[in-house]
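Quick one:
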Amino acid sequence: MGTGFIVLDVIRNSIGTSATERRFAGGSCGNVLTILAYFGWGANAVGRIGDDHAGRELVADLAKWGVETKLLQVEAGRGTPIIVQENYLDTKGRPRHRFSRACPVCGATLPAYRPLLTSESSMIAAKLPSHSVFYFDRVAPGTLELAQKSRANGALVVFEPSGLKDERLFTECLKAAHVVKYANDRIEGIHDVVAKAKVPIEIETLGAKGLRLRVRIGGRPGAWKDLPAFSAPELRDAAGSGDWTTAGLIHSLMAGGQPIEKVLADGDAVVLATRQGQALAALNCGFEGARGLMYEADAKRVLDLAGAIVKGTKQPSMDAVQPKKRTNGRTEKACLSCSGTRALHQ
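Output:
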């Protein structure tokens, strides 16, 4: 079960002889849910989208991978959140990407994320099916209520914040979480806040350097453990690396069917699960888009290869990933703002 940043990703690639544009379901929450569904999980998306062309594309891509979308509220007269990712080469010829909320055709500001309404959180909570994991990446009162109820019902709660605005609300979200994962350069002062909340598993990502983590047992923090990133077999697009790491962590932590308390207290298991996620992230870097690997490779083969990479018996390799028929999303060059508006009035 997940709620938060669920958007339509528009991938514009200017690398190569011709420019391309493809659209996928995305956002941190959208990616984590879809990757887990790819691994065989029953995944449910909770959130707010618009009754527009972008929303229908987003839902179609989620549904393609088996993500349940009944709890996505479709709002008439509102736009679906859209993020544009532009892939390019820097001055040294290295692949890079940047994100924008402006339509690349007309320049209009694209619709932004809208949090769950507090007034509807109780109704949504009543509709939630039984679930073993609750993921969220945005701070909002309604989201906090769902996280608290999920934890009370025995689910593993994973929190991946993008910023700290309301410290009181942020702290309550941390208290509801078993795992918190954040980027080191995005949230100032987060170490002290996490320490006070005593989150069992704390993961700090360090970009290309990898990450570090520590496990708290009985409220006492262990030592930080540095986990360098695996080398990508081919660097085409690093977007989505954090999402693959999170999804791999969740998948591996929960694979054994152990009680959550036992899983959280096993530091070695946490490290192994995190390394599995990092290996998956390295493999995805060889494909375009935050989830490009999914569209070209068999899930079991990918998981087996990631496990072998962690054990050191294999190296990340494009040749080792079994290709499938290419279905790299939909190519579309219409104005994102105007095409969405037209759809609203059809």
